[in-house]
Amino acid sequence: MEQPSHDLRAHVPTAIEGTGTRSVSLIVVGAIHVGLAFALIAGLKSGVLDKPLEELKAEVVQPKDVVKPPPPPPPDLAKPPPPFVPPPEISIASDAPSTNAITTQSTTPTPPAPPAPAPTQLSAIGRTHTLPPYPELSRKLSEQGSVTLEVTINEEGDCTDATVQNSSGSQRLDDAAVSWVKSHWRWNPPTQNGKPSSARTLVKVTFNLKTG
Question: Which site among 24, 141, 148, 173 is 20 to 30 Å from 199 CA-CA?
């Protein structure tokens, strides 16, 4: 079967036709650009020419002299004055005015002070140194004997304490002696420079069935 043949030359533009079309386009574009350039230049000229030209002047300004402040005065190096020391006060006592008064001195001798009283010794007040009552139970049990006591005497002559130094052998007899001496016996206290003082001494109390 035969394929139909087509004439391709009727549809493909020739090289000459393509070149002419491109040249015309370039000329048109260039004419547009030139017109725009002329219009822009004309507008700029009209705007620039309408305004007056400003006169520019150049002036040389001389720098002003800066006035510097005067330098500070030098410090005062003068020596300080010496410290003031007041002069000492000197007072001269004037002699007392003499008087014509006559003074007399007593010729009466001063009596000597009385001598201190002599010290005295401890002495018993005899009427108070009585025998204590005989304890009944000791009498029934035939208890007898002597008890030695050390007593303490104050400035008033009273017995303030009594302790057994030598026992009678019976506690009842010892207790009876201590109680009786402390409550009944009295002394004249010793003195020193006229003043009474306390003392201590030993006393003996005897319990005898024959005399008791």
Answer: 173
Q: Which two tokens stand for residue 30?
A: 């260039």
197/156 Cα distance (integer angstroms) = 8
**DSSP state letter for 152:** E
Contact (Cβ atoms closer than 8 angstroms) between residue 207 and residue 139? no
Q: Are 203 and 151 contacting, i.e. CB atoms less than 8 angstroms apart? A: yes
Query: What would the two tokens of residue 174 be?
Result: 């010892």
Q: Which two tokens stand for residue 32?
A: 């547009």
| Predicted pLDDT of residue 12 | 43
Q: What is the pTM of this model?
A: 0.47
Exposure b/e, 143-171, CB count within 10 A at least 16 = b: bbbebbbebebeeebebeebeeeeebebe
Q: How many angstroms separate the CA atoms of 201 and 187, rounded?
A: 11
Total residue length of the chain: 212
What gap in Å lies between CA 212 and CA 198, rounded to an integer?
Answer: 32
* SS3 state at 204: strand
Task: Find the mean pLDDT for residues 29-54.
Answer: 62
Domains of the chain as residue ranges with CATH: 123-207 (3.30.2420.10)
pLDDT at 166 over 80: yes
Q: Phi first, then psi: what are they for 147, rounded to 5°?
A: -120, 130
176: Cβ–Cβ under 8 A, 6 or more apart, which residues? 132, 133, 134, 135, 138, 207
